[in-house]
Amino acid sequence: MTSKEHIDQTFPNGTTSSTLYTPNRKYCVPSMNLRVTLATLLVVLSLVAGQLLFRATAMIWASGRSLFSMPVLTRLIPSLLIYAFATLAWIWVLRAVPLKSAYPFMALAFVLVPLGAHWMFGEAVTPQYWIGTLLIMAGVVITVLAK
After folding, report:
1. Burial of 61: CB neighbours in 10 Å, binned 0-12, 13-18, 19+
2. Most buried of 1, 15, 62, 127 (most Cβ within 10 A)?
3. Spatial distance between the Cα atoms of 59 and 64, rounded to a whole number of angstroms
4. At a CB cut-off of 8 Å and minimum separation 6, what does 75 contact?
5. 113 CB contacts (<8 Å, ≥6 apart)?
6. Element (H, E) at 118
7. Is-contact 3 22, C-beta < 8 A?
8. How many Cβ atoms from other residues are within 10 Å of residue 126's Cβ?
């Protein structure tokens, strides 16, 4: 075996890894496969949905309703359940890949939440927002493609 050699492996959960063997060291760096990537995107979309429901909850609560009124609770409880699901799904993702591989996808929430707020609640989206969105998306692409 040479001083540095990559060996690819597939695990029972469907993830793959590229293992770098060096003298006296072994590094295992799993890569994002389609299943893990889709699960990560599901986490992001769940967080977006939860944030939009939190905003809807806040708007109704701010209108003078009690926190424990039915209109508030019918938005708050689903948002908390969505966040609980997203947390469990995120932990599943992190079983398969390192945090540094999956975490850049979370930046998509910074793009999608304001768009959802604009669509659902009429919140303003400025030209600066679009510039920031392009920068975030470029950062995500660069980070995800980095080896």
Report:
1. middle
2. 15
3. 9
4. 53, 56, 57, 60
5. 47, 48, 51, 52
6. helix 108-121
7. yes
8. 9
Amino acid at 47: L
Question: In 82-118, which positions are buried (b, 16+ CB within 10 angstroms) versus exposed (e)?
Answer: bbeebeebbeebeebbeeebbebbebbbebbbbebbe
Helix and strand totals (H; E) in the chain: 5, 3
Q: Where are the domains of the chain?
A: 1-31, 32-145
pLDDT values of the chain reduced to their tens digit, one per residue, 147 residues: 444 455 555 655 665 655 444 444 444 556 678 999 999 999 999 999 999 999 999 999 999 999 999 999 999 999 999 999 999 999 999 999 988 888 888 988 999 999 999 999 999 999 999 999 999 889 888 887 876
18's tokens: 């590229």
How far is residue 98's CA from residue 89's CA, in Å, rounded to a whole number? 14
